[in-house]
């Protein structure tokens, strides 16, 4: 009998790629997403279309839609904070594993719209934990973020580092997820595994992320905003490497049998200077960027760098996509998708 996995945030960037991977690996997948309008919902519907779910079938709240492409994929439009329908979904579908990628994303947006972060990332996550508790879920894998490290100066960032000083509400909600997961693992005995993501990019990526913003502006001959005068470094991680890592966490049968709660960094572990990243996009587009040099943005950090040694040791995680290859694949998709 096939294992059944719930992926929340399935119309999102990483969730979409993970769903394809797990279906190919023989899992039965239920995808959940509320398809909010934080960024262009058309991109989310197009991702679902690739998974065999038409826009018409994705519009109705709390109604299961079957894929016309994959027999082992179904979709439901639902809010995580729905205390009536989410438990009913768990009772009906009897999941083996849950992968929570749903969240209100974006560091800067959290400065302007704090309430939606608490609703989705805290209330919604609590609702999910309650469902896992009452429906005997074996393992909950959930997305945390490198933003929890705040202005940590020690590099590379380790899960042993202090993360008690988040500098954005988004980071604070992700830190709260880790604390809540610890409590539920301790009290109710199911396994929770948090993955701190580091700057994921690639085809079908989010329009609010640097990769997309830079490529779009440069291709149109518009200026790009370069914060901290370009003196930034990011541990850019290609989406296929991220998905391979998540899949390994989901598929491993026994993980630290005595340890119900664990946290891992998931990144490339090779920080890239922002100006070098921009230069690579320029090469792929064959156009030079018009750079608007600006000071540091509130809530932002100068450098991210993941220590992924524990993820390598536990799950044989091995990110292998170079920045040159990854940027090339993104630009190729961007040109194709936007003609």
Description:
This is NAD-dependent epimerase. InterPro entries: NAD(P)-bd_dom, NAD(P)-bd_dom_sf. It comes from Salinimicrobium marinum. This protein has 339 residues and is α/β, with parallel strands linked by helices. It has twelve helices and 14 strands. An eight-stranded mixed beta sheet has the order 3-4-2-1-5-6-7-12, sandwiched between helices. The chain has a two-stranded parallel ribbon with strand order 8-11. Helix 7 (169-188) links the parallel strand 6 (139-145) and strand 7. Helix 10 (274-285) packs across helix 12 (323-337). It is globular, with a radius of gyration of 19 Å. The mean pLDDT is 95.
Average of pLDDT = 95
- CATH homologous superfamily descriptor: NAD(P)-binding Rossmann-like Domain
Rg, rounded, reads 19 Å
What's the total helix number? Answer: 12
| Adjacency order of strands in the biggest sheet | 3-4-2-1-5-6-7-12
Kindly identify the CATH topology.
Rossmann fold
Q: What structural category characterises the helix and strand content?
A: alpha/beta
Secondary-structure element series: EHEHHEEHEHHEHEEHEEEHEEHEHH
Question: Can you tell me the number of structural domains?
Answer: 1
List keywords for this structure.
single chain; 8-stranded mixed β-sheet; 339 residues; Rossmann fold; alpha/beta
């Amino acid at each position: 009998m096939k294992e059944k996995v719930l992926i929340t945030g399935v119309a999102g960037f990483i969730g979409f790629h993970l769903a394809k991977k797990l279906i190919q690996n023989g899992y039965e997948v239920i995808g959940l997403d509320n398809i909010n309008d934080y960024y262009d919902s058309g991109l989310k519907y197009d991702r679902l279309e690739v998974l065999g779910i038409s826009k018409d079938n994705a519009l109705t709240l709390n109604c299961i839609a079957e894929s016309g492409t994959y027999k082992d994929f179904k979709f439901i439009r639902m809010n995580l904070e729905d205390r009536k329908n989410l438990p009913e979904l768990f009772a009906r579908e009897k999941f083996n594993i849950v992968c929570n990628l749903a969240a209100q994303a974006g560091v800067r947006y959290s400065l302007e719209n704090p309430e939606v972060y608490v609703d989705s990332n805290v209330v919604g996550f609590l609702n999910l934990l309650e469902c896992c508790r009452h429906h005997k879920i074996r393992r909950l894998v959930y997305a945390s973020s490198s933003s929890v490290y705040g202005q940590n100066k020690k590099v590379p960032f380790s899960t042993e580092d202090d993360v008690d000083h988040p500098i954005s509400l988004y980071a604070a909600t992700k830190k709260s997820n880790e604390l809540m997961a610890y409590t539920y693992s301790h009290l109710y005995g199911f396994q929770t595994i948090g993955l701190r993501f580091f700057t994921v990019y690639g085809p079908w990526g989010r329009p609010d992320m640097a990769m997309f913003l830079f490529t779009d502006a440069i291709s149109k001959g518009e200026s790009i905003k370069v914060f901290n005068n370009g003196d930034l470094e990011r541990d850019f991680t290609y989406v296929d490497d991220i998905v391979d890592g998540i899949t390994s966490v989901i598929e491993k049968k026994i993980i630290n049998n005595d340890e119900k709660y664990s946290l891992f960094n998931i990144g490339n572990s090779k920080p890239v200077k922002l100006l070098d990243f921009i230069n690579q996009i320029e090469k792929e587009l064959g156009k030079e960027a018009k750079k608007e040099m600006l000071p540091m943005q509130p809530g932002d950090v100068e450098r991210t760098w993941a220590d992924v040694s524990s993820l390598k040791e536990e799950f044989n995680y091995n990110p292998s996509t170079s920045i040159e290859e990854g940027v090339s694949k993104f630009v190729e998709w961007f040109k194709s998708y936007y003609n």
